[in-house]
Design brief:
Acyl_CoA_acyltransferase, alpha+beta, six-stranded mixed β-sheet, 6 strands, GNAT_dom, 23% helix, Acetyltransferase_Butenolide, Aminopeptidase
Length: 149
Amino acid sequence: MQTFSLQKDEFLISTDKSKLDINAIHDFLSTKAYWCLNIPKEKVAMSIENSLCFGLFETHKQIGFARIITDFSTIAYLGDVYILEAYRGKGLSKWLLETIMNFSELQGLRRWILLTGDAHELYRKYGWTDLADSSKWMEFHNKNVYALD
């Protein structure tokens, strides 16, 4: 897959993994992301290696991120989406989500899924809905997997 980049003013969205600042991503995810607090850096690096990633940058500074787990044919999971607090309120999360949802290699999928505790309204603007029938979904969730001993 070829890398993709999109510039808007001083901001850049790119799928080029060589541009990603693993330390900055790990710092945010391990200390500020309620869904994966204390995640080890090695887990973040491996998740990036095995996913389609969208980095959001101001010049060369990592200010946002999103990760897609997909087979590029039927399903995609959107996860680890964030914008640094200092950059929120500028429309960057909307731009990032629009870019992801319109990404050519993710078109025609039967299903997209995600988990969110606080951004329902953002995702609804792009066609996301609550599960139509949650009785069909199951999970195995180890919520304390990154807990510090």
